[in-house]
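USER: For my understanding, would you kindly supply a protein sequence with its structure tokens?

ASSISTANT:
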Amino acid sequence: MQDDLTSGRSQLCIMQISDLHFGPPLVPDVAEAALASCFRLAPDLLVVSGDLTQRARREQFEAARDYLQRFPSIPRLVIPGNHDVPLYDVARRLSDPHRNYREIISPALNTVLEVPGAVLVGLDSTSPRSAISNGRIHSWQLEFCAQAFANAPQDATRIVVAHHHFAPAPDTLRDARMPQARRAITKFTELGVELIMGGHLHRAYIGHSLDFYPGEHRDRGIIIAQSGTTTSRRGRGRETEKNSFNLIELAERTVKITHYLYFDAQQGFVANSQHFFRRWRQPNADSAHS
């Protein structure tokens, strides 16, 4: 039996973009390059992990909507980020923070998307009335996940998408993780989640929950794929003045994540690194020898 992490045909390919920040920080040429990359890479699914706008203004949401409509007609999952709720308009932030998002992007803030081979749960981690920057996942959202995965096919890959990060990037910027992040990771692990996708950090982090929460379910843990800002000038840390997205390829035995960076010299996104993870959901003995 072949047992090579780099082998195996992709069963599902996901392009993950994040932190578009339509408004003044947007870099139009980079946005066009990200669009061209999607057509070139031909993923099966598009995930947009929050912060579509810079200041949650109607015209910014309309521009983001028009941009996303130009992507290939493939299934997609979109969630809001903290920049998609008003910051300075305190009255609207307290009374109806997601009005423009609901009217222009999607009426649903927490969503379930089922595609062949996978079930994705998108969670609204924004907390406009209490934790504007760090976000929050509430206990009822964990139950929302449990219900979604309870109805999923037994062999489907289980994926959670949330804008805010459950684990900090391994660098010196020291971003505070979400409150109750460990509780959420523990619940996701119990539910059989294999992959968490997010944004917010404005630089990529591709790693594993066991790097930060080693006490729970050491036989599996969860792969983490944080995308940098795909189309704005707001990159941070090692991705200052840089733009990135992730391409996730799910195969029978492995998950391969390719991190793409934009380079001026190429006027486009180029594969910068690749990361391979062995899946703990392995085929049973009968199917492996059939």
